[in-house]
């Protein structure tokens, strides 16, 4: 079954990297990603390269998209970048022309942008370039912000909300059409599988699978066991949506 990887990182030390809370990850190039995916016999159809907190606001790494497209023209990739909420219209459009499909705000790891600014930015970026907004957020923030977040035209929440106390808000957001990343299972303090089953029952277009490779700062990284669990717990039609179609349509279109 084809995979559209909705959440993975490329850590290429040809480009800017910076410490976040004293942490700087080891390099993990697209070659490394492709090698690991091949070892697991994943039929990768493309994906979303997500800017990490360790990349700051640097966008020079977008050169990677051109390199990948030249080597693997049959795969479809986009980038999700860390962008400041006061980014100009010209910058948003310039980034979009280079393959950026959205902005990421990691509120869980110290991004101090206000929710009102994120909402305003998201509305503007969606109107200008059709951008998605992706948020990694703590449960406390999700509880306080869930109503405001529904004002964002195109929104996804990272890593199944990260904590068990996020779960009720994820259900409400999924019911409102918000996408939930089925990723980062090694980051969670709960068993994700019953939660994923319920989210899928609420809205079968909500879940978007991501490997979260290379899995920085986690004890358990993505493995084929995770793919096999989808096969055991979901119908073939649901697997196609979760592992490929939902994210492909979200980022690439029909």
Report the uncertain regions: none
Strand content: 15-25%
Q: Total helix count?
A: 9
What is the rounded Rg? 17 Å
Judging from the principal axes of the Cα atoms, what is the shape? Answer: globular
Cα separation of the termini: 18 Å
**Biggest sheet features:** 8 strands, parallel
Summarize the structure.
By secondary structure, the protein is an alpha/beta fold. Helix content is 39%, strand content 17%. Helix 4 links the parallel strand 4 and strand 5.
What keywords describe this structure?
254 residues; eight-stranded parallel beta sheet; 9 helices
Topology:
Layout: E1 2-8, H1 30-39, E2 43-50, H2 63-71, E3 76-82, H3 89-97, E4 100-106, H4 115-129, E5 132-136, H5 139-149, E6 155-157, H6 167-175, E7 179-182, H7 192-202, E8 207-209, H8 224-233, H9 236-251
Parallel strand pairs: 1-2, 2-3, 3-4, 4-5, 5-6, 6-7, 7-8
Helix pairs in contact: 3-4, 6-7
